[in-house]
Amino acid sequence: MTIERNDPRVLVVLAxxxxxxxxxxxxxxxxxxxxxxxVRRITRLHRYHPxxxxxxxxxxxxxxxxxxxxxxxxxxxxxxxxxxxxxxMFSDEATFHNTGQLNRHNSHYWSIENPxxxxxxxxxxxxSLVVWCGIVNGYLIGPYFFDGNVNRDRxxxxxxxxxxxxxxxxxxxxxxxxxxxxxxxxxxRSLDVQDFLNQTYRNRWIGIGxxxxxxxxxxxxPDLTSPDFYLWGFLKNSVYADAPTTRENMMQRIINTxxxxxxxVLLSTVGSFERRIQLCIRHHGGIxxxxxx
Length: 293
Hints:
The protein has helices at 8-19, 25-32, 36-45, 61-80, 152-166, 172-177, 191-200, 226-239, 247-259, 263-282; strands at 88-97, 128-136, 139-146, 179-181, 205-207, 215-216.
């Protein structure tokens, strides 16, 4: 059935959307009596699309200034060296739970009849893995699995003894130019860790600490780090595609998925970061992820 633009139902539907942009097609049908399929045709005719909400990190008043200051510093670096952020190792930790849920929106089972596809989730026997990864110049560093939660001693041991081994396959040029970035997690900003970074990466690390031997990382800014805006979501959707059976099984899945990511994909996260700092500046340090297409 064709909907004409002068159909009186068009005005009704558009008026309801204008008054309540969150209204659903079902609600329009119930309140107006216009069949659901007709409502869909009207919205398509006028190019309305049901955009989904984007969950973002809540910012405090001071965060805006700190985010803006960091992004302006990053912009200045890019003006002096367009390849600068290829050599910044963005790093982060994430927790993978055996009860973790895949994105069901991406899970389909095409069939003529309903296959009643289900997955059992064991909430009585829960365990988790804490995983560290870094991305620098198209290299995925890690994964490294922490034995328990990340505290000062474990993180310092990792930086001192494990990270150098993980970087062995990275070319010497990248290692010589590399900066280290991490967020303001308690283990990251301990005094012992700061002292180590000041000695090892003097003036070449980004984080939260005392003194002037580093660049301050803005708190509550996962939208600016490639592990957060790309890697963790990709890994979890892949790892949780089938329910993990054991810790070892989950670890191997994470390792295999990391190994399978092409270098050009990892390099593309640098361009995404650079676009994000421009958006952050344009919005005066505010939230911008809902504007990314």
